[in-house]
Amino acid sequence: MNSDRRTFLKTAALAAPLAPALSANDRPAFGVIAAGGRGRYLANHFAKLGAQCVAVCDVREENLQASLKAFPDAKPYYHHEELLAQKGIDFTVCAGPDHWHCQHLLDSLKAGKDVYTEKPLSKSLQESAVMVQAVKNSGKIVQVGMQRRSAPSLIKAKQMVDSGLLGRITMVKAKWHWNVARPLNNEPFQGKVDWERFLGSAPKRPMEPRRLRYWRLFRDYSGGNMTDQGTHLMDVVQWFTGAPGPKAAIGMGYVAKNEGAEHPEVFSATIDHGKFLTTWELNYCNDFEDSWSILFMGDEATMRLDDNGVQVWKEQWKDNRTPIIDEKAPVPIETHIQNFLDCIKSRQQPNCTVEIAQRAVAGPHLANIAMSAGRQVRLAEDLVTVS
User: Fold this and answer.
1) Looking at the domain that runs over 149-331+354-383, which CATH code has it been given?
2) Sheet (strand 52-57) strand order
3) Which listed residue, 164, 234, 313, 374, has the most CB atoms within 10 A of its CB?
4) Are 143 and 46 in contact (CB under 8 A)?
5) Is residue 316 packed enough to be buried (19+ CB in 10 Å), middle (13-18) or exposed (0-12)?
6) Do the beta carbons of residue 19 and residue 54 sit within 8 Å?
């Protein structure tokens, strides 16, 4: 460790005394592993709901300093193992790149912590299986950050589907549109960066700022937006339909405007669920119907979910263009976090378990493999829970 980094950590640590041991039944204490933008966003919401941030970890000095501005009593670390050794931490919030999700979870469980981990669950189908088994063996509470599972409006919409309102669902169309694609910024970072720690188990290579700045767009660190946004929407598809893990997938895509990226920001995939098909499309070069939507197409009615709410139209479309249901459907992060906090007290399973997250990411993982191979791929039965 160089002298500048030692000075920063020493100074910050002196300003942040060791937090006392706290009970999950009192005011639970947590540490944030990967305190970038998403990690700090989650930490702020956990704090608003009564939890106490006592430790933060990140490979970038800028992120640690930003975290200490928000949580001045937290202790800063560059390595998550040091954070996990701090006494008094009840749970961790894991918000790192996909290629660190498995290790951060396993190490948190080994340290005896409950875990709130960001989606997608894993970087690969094999990692998903390892993570599910580890959580089963641990007896710990693990919530995966797919907040639609805890949205009251979507829970109500799920009940509509369960009632048979849509009839037989034969196709589901999921999409995400944002006009955000740009050439990748490769300018140096301000402050210190532990590049080797960021790489972790990924192939070693010289420092390249854009790989850390946009890690989601590189194959060594992520499944791209196929698994990132895809795990949100495929989870809702499987939740609403009661479908088991996917059977097969095909996919194709390309890098349009994100010059320097490896993962595409324009793609289309088709996932076979056995009794119906799901199309999954993403275009980050166009904002028509901005953001996400899911269209459930049944033989008696069609349901659309998006940021505007829940709408349902009866068949036939030419005679029934006015929706019979039109309701707002917010997806607040607070209800998902509160569900986790409630569960670490009750020891009941949370709304989004690792088994649910394993099934949600399986289809996008398959689609990535298919896109790379240029052919349809099928899922091996031992790589996803189907019960």
Assistant:
1) 3.30.360.10
2) 75-77, 52-57, 29-33, 91-94, 114-117, 142-144
3) 234
4) no
5) exposed
6) yes
